[in-house]
Amino acid sequence: MKHIDNIPSTPGKFKMEKSPYNRLRLHSSLAKLTFWSFVFLGLIFVFFYRSPSSSSTGSLPSDLSRRSLRTSSYGDPAWEKRIKASAKVRATNGMSVLVTGAAGFVGTHVSSALKRRGDGVLGLDNFNDYYDQSLKRARQALLERSGVYIVEGDINDVTLLKKLFDIVPFTHVMHLAAQAGVRYAMENPSSYVHSNIAGLVSVLEVCKSVNPQPAIVWASSSSVYGLNTKVPFSERDRTDNPASLYAATKKAGEEIAHTYNHIYGLSLTGLRFFTVYGPWGRPDMAYFFFTKDILKGKAIQIFEAPNHGTVARDFTYIDDIVKGCLAALDTAEKSTGSGGKKKGSAQLRVYNLGNTSPVPVSDLVSILERLLKVKAKRTIMKLPRNGDVQFTHANISLAQRELGYKPTTDLQTGLKKFVRWYLSYYGNGKKSAQ
Ligand SMILES: NC(=O)c1ccc[n+]([C@@H]2O[C@H](COP(=O)([O-])OP(=O)(O)OC[C@H]3O[C@@H](n4cnc5c(N)ncnc54)[C@H](O)[C@@H]3O)[C@@H](O)[C@H]2O)c1
């Protein structure tokens, strides 16, 4: 391999010598080069096959990225055909939207609403086991029936994301995939960093590099208001005292969004959802597991703040949230960059999407008792300091003004719809939520 030493440090200046001796040396060198190239390529193949993904960041408890590479059959024509069919725009002036977290609670509702009005929709979800996966599969089946395909993969899988953009030049990304829940952060903190920080960066990296760049609407959270005491929470308020790692990762997401808007001209809208509830909801949320436990005759814990302070939430019905998401997509301006370079300033927005009427958690339980016709066994507990805040209350005037957002469902009406769904889905308590 001595000849390698002869290559000048400026590669462009290297000239092949033409003597027979050199030709002989060249042949044997070529054979060696071919041999070592094969060895090298083999090693690369083994590395890619065994590692989670070339782009995967951080170590994951479960190797989700790897699974997506194996199951999503890159390049398979049938797979690409499904993707194209799902993302096909049917309405005049419709948009093609990549919905991350599509098998999730909000993702399912948003995907189905977009599809209904003729937009092209493709879902992406890693179907992780944070809560009952069969519920995610049931939502997937529901979407499948309305023509929405969910690609199974992780948002950290940059290769997969790029491939999806190669197949469909999405005009919009509705980014809902995240590790939700405040208490679970004490059990599995890295899942928050993986999905809410590294995952967001992966999505934005791909969005900034594709041409044309899509506009992005993504889910932040009311939890960014943390320990603030001034109510109702306004977008102008400070958000620098989060009470949980979940809140901190959402706050970090807002800062990351600012950066990608500033450097690459990505159009970014963050939506701060306030306690979303409704049919096909999340089993880790209080209204959901209270329903399950009340039906089972199991005691439920109701938290109380110091000095018998009320714990209250600005519960927001899913249909209102969906309207807010669609309005955010409809009013999103185009990103201004191309080829990874900013060409001008782009839109950067943050909105509260709440209901503006906080309800004490004990009232939520009373409504559930009436709807389920079962008396709850209540245990009053001190609000633990593990992420939950005492109350949330949204000021929604900005979303009202700029998105035309106007929630219309009160808690009583929304819970009635949730309970009806719960009883039909879990068969009047015969089949129980996990
Ligand atoms: N539901 C609420 O009350 C609420 C409130 C505030 C903010 N949010 C935010 O709204 C969004 C949607 O919430 P939701 O209630 O539908 O939660 P969800 O858990 O039901 O949905 C999130 C989906 O994302 C998927 N996912 C998670 N990490 C992923 C990854 N790395 N790659 C691919 N998919 C991944 C999950 O499998 C899940 O299906 C989340 O960003 C959440 O933080 C929700």
Offer a quick outline of the entry.
This protein has 434 residues and is α/β, with parallel strands linked by helices. 44% of the residues lie in helices and 13% in strands. Mean pLDDT is 86; it is low at 1-28 and 42-71.
**β-strand number:** 13
Question: Mean pLDDT across all residues, rounded?
Answer: 86
Could you give the order of strands across the largest sheet?
Answer: 3-2-1-4-5-6-11
Work out the radius of gyration. 26 Å
Sheet/helix structural class: alpha/beta
Largest sheet: 7 strands, parallel
Q: Based on CA inertia axes, which overall geometry fits? A: globular
**Order of H and E elements:** HHHHEHEHEHEHEHEEHEEEHEEHEHH
Helix content: 40-55%
Q: Distance between termini?
A: 63 Å
Low-confidence stretches: 1-28, 42-71
Strand content: 5-15%
Q: What's the tally of helices?
A: 14
Q: Name the ligand types.
A: nicotinamide-adenine-dinucleotide
Describe this structure in words.
The chain is α/β, with parallel strands linked by helices and 434 residues long. 44% of the residues lie in helices and 13% in strands. The protein has 14 helices and 13 strands. A 7-stranded parallel beta sheet has the order 3-2-1-4-5-6-11, sandwiched between helices. A two-stranded parallel sheet has the order 7-10. Helix 5 links the parallel strand 1 and strand 2 (120-125). It starts with a helix and ends in a 9-residue tail after the last helix. Nicotinamide-adenine-dinucleotide binds at residues 101, 103-107, 125-128, 136, 154-156, 176-180, 195, 199, 219, 221, 273, 275-276, 282.
